[in-house]
Structure formats: structure tokens, C-alpha cells
Amino acid sequence: MLHNKQVITLDTNPSRYEAAYLEQGTGAPLLFLHGFMGEGSCWRSLLDALATDHRCIALDMLGFGQSSKPMIRYDIAKLVAFVRQFVVTLGLERVTLVGHSLGGWVAAAYALAYDDVEALILVAPAGIRDDSFCGRYDHLRPLLWQTSVVDLGLWLAQPLASVIGQRENLDRLRWFRREINAQPAGRSFLVDRLRPEDAIDTVEKEIHQLQVPTLVVIGDRDETIPLWHAQTYANEIAGAQFVVLPNTDHSLTQIYAAGIVNEMRSFLTQTPSHPIESK
Predict the structure, then answer these.
(1) Chain centroid to CA 260: how far?
(2) What are phi and psi of 14, to 5 degrees?
(3) Whole-angstrom Cα distance, residue 109 to residue 5?
(4) Which of 41, 138, 181, 275 is paired with 190 by a 20 to 30 Å CA distance?
(5) How many Å apart are CA 122 and CA 215, to the nearest integer?
(6) What is the 3-state secondary structure (H, E, C) of 120-183?
(7) How many Cβ atoms sit within 10 Å of the Cβ of residue 17?
């Protein structure tokens, strides 16, 4: 069974933050980093499957889940620093990082900064500069406005949305607004990255420096992370394995967990520090 979520205090400079995480299993450590608006529990199915051979740790990154949510301007460097302090606090000498979407971006940036990474598993990783993203979500900007007028408008729109068959979409927008206002990291990443010139910490220019075994996985129907973003990681990181899962979208870590587990097992058997018994 999964352990209950644990919380530890990290002595960061200059603040002290709490880090919430799930842990299961023993063996070589796998540190799971969730995607945007997610949390460590998104990895439950993978932890259940992989804990027979590994110490599986799923972290709520800074600003998400039950970890600290300071009101700061968030960026990749701050998330990497949080992960680094977590790794040091737990005494993980060597670790394989498994990151989905935003977590994949953080994992790659961490591996560029520190040499304690045994391997990288990047699932539909973000972090590749793509100016076409800017403007794609302009119509959602009012959802970021911190005014009750937006909430009133969404509430008043419910009868019309029901009549025209858009109630489900409206409910999704209301959920997104609640979540984004409850998670300062998510809101900061959206508000502070509305222009192409704001993309100053993407990793496409540096990932060629990575020398660790790497697996890149993406679904062929992913509408959040373009296929060429994942392909860029695979092309730039020497020796990286690249897998496109058929008939799958961005919900890889939850709906398609079995496919990810199979690819991870195959990859990890090739990494000396990750012995896996045959299943």
C-alpha cells in the first residue's frame, strides 16, 4: 500500500518550505515530478506498479498540492532549487528523475544543473520554446482576473450554457478558475509568460549537454505538448530513446499508466543501477 502523504521542512535560502510527498517501495530511487496543475498523487498507478523494485517518491512541487505555496514569482529555477533541497534532505545520492509535462521540464533543468541524476524519463515534457503558444490561450485571460465580476458572469451563464449544450465546458472553465486561483505557482506561470520574450528559461539550447540515459515518451494524440517538442529532447540528448504511444493523449500518467510502466521497465532494465526482476 501507499504510505500516507508525508511532509518535511526544507531549509532553503532564505525561506523554509514544506515539501509533501508520497513514498512506496525500496531499492534504487525514482523521483516523480508531476505536470502543471498536478500533484504527486497523479503518479499513484505508476508507484503501485514500480514499487516492487524501486523506492518510488512522488513530490508535490513548490506551489502545488500540499507543499508550501508562497506568493512569489515562480520560475523553473525556483522549482529546481526546491527539488534539489528535497533530494539533499532525503539523502538521495543518485536518483532517476521521472517528469511529466512541467515536471519533465524541471527534471531536464535539474539534470543540467546537478550531476546526481542516474537517468531521465521525460513524459510529454514541456520546456521547449514555442512562440506559437503565446496567444493560444488569450481567450482564457479573463479567468486569471482576480475579481468577483468574473465569477458572477460564469454563474449567470449557466442557464444559457445548459440550453446550448455547453454546460460541461462552462463547468470546466469554472473549475479551472478555482484551481488556478488556489495555486499561486500555476497562476504565476500563466500570468508571467504571456509574451514570447518571457520564455527565458526553456532548455532547448542546453539539453545537448546531457550525458545521462534518457527515455522520452509522448502520446500520438497529445494536444498539449506538440510531438516535435518531445522529438527535440530525443534528438538533442545523445543516445536518448524515443517512444510515441499510439492512441494516447496528454493524460499519460493516469489514463495510460500501463503503457508508461511498460516503457519504463524496458528502459530501466538497461540502466545498471536499476535491476528489475522479470515479470
Answers:
(1) 15
(2) -105, 5
(3) 26
(4) 41
(5) 6
(6) EEEECCCCCCCHHHCCCCHHHHHHHCCCHHHHHHHHHCHHHHHHCCCHHHHHHHHHHHHHHHHC
(7) 19
Mean pLDDT within 50-71: 92
Q: Collapsing DSSP states into helix, strand and coil, what is residue 118?
A: strand
Q: How confident is the model at residue 231 (pLDDT cuts 50, 70, 90)?
A: very high
Buried/exposed 233-243: b ≥16 CB within 10 Å, e otherwise: bbebbeebbbb
pTM comes to 0.85
Q: CA-to-CA distance for 36 and 250, rounded, in angstroms?
A: 11
Band of pLDDT at residue 13, cut at 50, 70 and 90: low
What span, in angstroms and rounded, lies between the C-alpha atoms of 13 and 10? 9
